[in-house]
Fold these 3 entries.
Entry 1:
Amino acid sequence: MVEQRKQKSRLWLWLGAVALIVGVFFTAHYFLRERLPVREAQAVYQDLIKTSATNGRVEPEKPYAFYSPLSTTVQAVYVHEGDQVRAGQLLITLDNVEARAKVAAAETAVKSAQAGLEAILHNGTQEQRLMAQEQLVRSRLAQKQAQSNLNALVKLAATGAASPNEVAAARQQVAEAEASLHTAEQNATDRYSPAAVAEARASLADAEANLAAARQVLAQSSIRAPISGTVYTLDAKPTEFAQAGSLLLKMADLRQERVRAYFDEPEIGGLAVGQKAVIKWDAKPGRTWQGHVERTPITVVTYGTRTVGEALIRIDDAANSGLLPDTNVTVTVTTAFAPHVLTVPREAVYPESGHPCVYRIVNNKLVRTPVTTGAFTLTEEQILSGVHAGEWVATGSPTGQPLVDGTEVRIVE
């Protein structure tokens, strides 16, 4: 009996020891278990600014380029690259001997065409008109004489004194005389047809057009500044030969410049007229220029290996800006601006089942929370509902493990 009691005591002792060990194990596992490491971020109010940056090229708003109107020699160059010039100032002169000869030949052609048209409109030259009048008088006399001869022969034929053949021959002479008279009358009053008049007018118009072109070439042999501005490209050199169509000089008012910016196709939709832009030039680090979008892209083009749309950026402080034409710059356009809005990092927002959500960190546990989002940038996203300012959200785990609702976590940097 005593032995049985001892055995029961040992059994309960062993069971108690096992229970204690199990309790200690689970308690230690609870306090020592591995929690999911996550990074956290706080929901805060801030200005949300979305920008789009790209490259561009500076250009004058109204550039003036001058090309050689003919193949000739440059006589003189009166300016240097970078010079400020006034409107009407002589910049370059070209050898214009050939141009003056062409003007003279064109003037002669115009005079000849004018004389030809004048003669046609007045039914010929004065000499031709006098000859036509003389011919008309002779034709009238010949017609009267032929008619008189015919009348006489008809009377003689009635008495048998003239043969029928003589009368027929007289009638033929009358017909020929009348035909000659008709021709003489037409020459004296209406020598030229409407088609001839139109042809003469067209010849005069062609001659006048050739003269205008020749005079224009002659005028272009002396290049003058159309406006007050700056010479920023100068290819002409004295005594050098210039091919027709070759560039001689470029100038513009550099107080009015713009940037032709090249935006990649996916970014075109965010552009709008009036959006603010910041321009930077590597040649002047630390300095920026302000501008705005003046024209959005109307088509896309191939630019190197990119498909881009060309936008025009007006430089608001271009006066004395120091930006040189044809230089390459960086343009950053503010495409969206939301002041003082609640934001979280974009990596904290997860699209699950087509709806965005975040994982708030509450008492070291993840709480899946649906949210409504608004504007966004590359790094931040606006929260319209679901999260309050000051709350902490998980931005992911450095181990790459997925976030699950209810998971206990520990915060890591």
Entry 2:
Amino acid sequence: MNITVVGGGYVGVITAVCLCEFGFRIYLCEQNQKQLDSLKQSISPSSEPGVNQLLKKHINAETLVLSTTFSNFISKSFAVVVTIKPDDNNPNLSNIHSAIRAIALKLEKNRYTGVLIKTSLPVGACAIIADNVKFVRPDLKPGEHYDIISNPGFLREGVAIHDFMEPNRILIGLERSSTKSEMLVSKIYKPLEASGVPFIFSNFETVELIRAASIGFVATKMAFINEVADLCERCGANINTVIKGIALDHRIGRKALDVSPGFGGSSFPRTIRTLVNAAKAFGLDFHILTSTIKSNSTRISGIKTKILSLIDASQEKTFPNMISKQVTILGLSFKPQTGDIRESASIFAINDLLHDGNIKVVAYDPMFKPNDTDYEKLPNEIVSNKNFHIAESVYDAVNQSDIVVIMTHWNEFRSLNLQKIKELMNKKHGEKPIILDYRNMFSKSEMSMFNYISQGQ
């Protein structure tokens, strides 16, 4: 049985290789020739663990076919899965609508084809897509010849394969219920149905809102616990114990109650803004999520101020052309196990520090090494700044540094030689070197050789 997956980006590649694991033959279509060439070499567009191995496995087995066009494959497939990412610079979703129109023109009367929208879209988008398909193909009848099916996923970067293969739930949005659409969904997700994964069937808007509201709620928890950590610092409470006490309340739970420099990535910020804008379109103010966005922004913008206050950078203002302070940033991605730096707090903080004009910033991240391809993902305004450097190792990064700031909780950082770091760092006579930890990776006792500043401990 064949399925066509349109879009060879992050969601498309994960979807394709996982559906191959379910036993289907997948036609993965990506128009960007450079990206397609990388996929043919079993190199995914992201650094997601395990994906390259699955790409190689299924390309070699010929259960995964790669192409720049999908026009020849739709007639061979019982389902088409659209995973094209919305254009961030084009809120009218024109790239999605163009793809759906091209797919609709290839649908055939003598067979049923399910068109699954796997990409994350604003509330109301799938209804517009369904209307557009009716306009383009008035000769076809929904429920008989095809169905538009909203099927958003919840893929967390770093564990996306696990999330696809063992999801918390499967969301299915339909304009109207049809026997053929339900049979198609059951066929695609048979392994998950057999293992007891809950399926939620509803209309387009409900399913779209479930995904957006879920992300908004998790983001609100993250922003909330960061503010609690700030309060702990002021009043002398311990955030780790506070989290433990909160998490024991079964109405709340432990997930997303970790302090951080602020949430980022491609999904959370964009989804929350889209949800707030959707509410505005209906004449509503989403006060809680608006406050969550503001809280997260305030936390990220305060990182520079906190760093400069700890190293007493005000004295350099007398010598604006001299670089006399070095800041080490450990971690560039917004979370470990990924090279995604979109809306990462580290990138915002580095940009703010470099704009100060007299701060040298040295960064280290396992995913970003000088001359590596991932290095190209870094913003040009940062890499072109003479005061910014990428280090080959943590020890190179901390050498002669006035402060080390832990921004991403990579496991590599847990096994560092702390004594060596202490010896390499710059410090005033008789004072301990400064480490600012936005992830609370260590305890005060194990960091006793440093002036260790954690969040709310």
Entry 3:
Amino acid sequence: MKTLVTGAAGFLGFHLSRRLLELGHEVTMIDDCSRGRDDGFMRDLAQKPNAKFLKIDLAEERHYKNLEGGYDAVFHLAAINGTKNFYERPKDVLRVDLLATIHLLDWFAAKGNKLFLFASTAETYAGAAVAIPTPEEVMLVVSDPFNPRWSYGGSKIAGELLTINYSRQHRFPFVVLRYNNIYGPRAGYDHVIPAFIMRLLQRQDPFKIYGADCTRTFCYVDDAVQATILAATQEAARGLIMHVGSDLDGEMTMRDLAKKMFTLFEYSPRIEELPPPKGSPLRRRPMLEKLYRNLQFKPAIRLEEGLRRTFEWYQKHGRNQSAV
């Protein structure tokens, strides 16, 4: 299979690209490395015989002029994400995420490509009053356009609309995957699990927890990658929006997540509980029946095992990495 992965130097894009290469697929990896890292891991990946890496800013239309087509699957993961960026760089988040998606879809429709897979997020429905667990059919609402947090969720709502309507007009198949709290090695520092790990490694005391009563479910990156590849290769996924996540360990408060990590990694600091960022949903738990039914897939990595793998990676590599 001839594939293209945007955002390949980022967290999920890197792991997806690596797995596709391991399976023997031809993989073109694109990133401008503004957030994703051009590190030793990425450079090693780009040296694989079935790999090609292109440093391209997808938000600039001129960069598509010489980009070849004919891909069996295009995985569009490129975006500026991370909670810190939502609040501090909302204009950049909106500009880059929207322009990259529009230009990529224009190129996709004109170049004889086959399947377009759009990486969306649970942030698309963060402003709605939702049932728990939450189905894909939930109403998508920008609850407060003045809250910069919505720069990301809003861009992904627009991205879903763009994908669906380009597909309708140009008659190509698509899949939209809404990822829910994916974690694992090389995930940067802007998400809760790697942030907690780095504080543990730094022996932070008191240990700060923002939104201690907020609940999430967590999905290890290997499971998310497997679901993504199945979504691109199974006919049953065509034309669907599906949540990607894990319900193996159920919902967990941020307080209980921290305490679990204290036990696993043998550290017992005092806890300082602080308010959650404005607009952060109190609960998040996706309904996964559509994922299981259409892909015959269920996650395999329990939280404890995933945390151990992630901690070991950050313990070895994290202190030498710049924040993403």
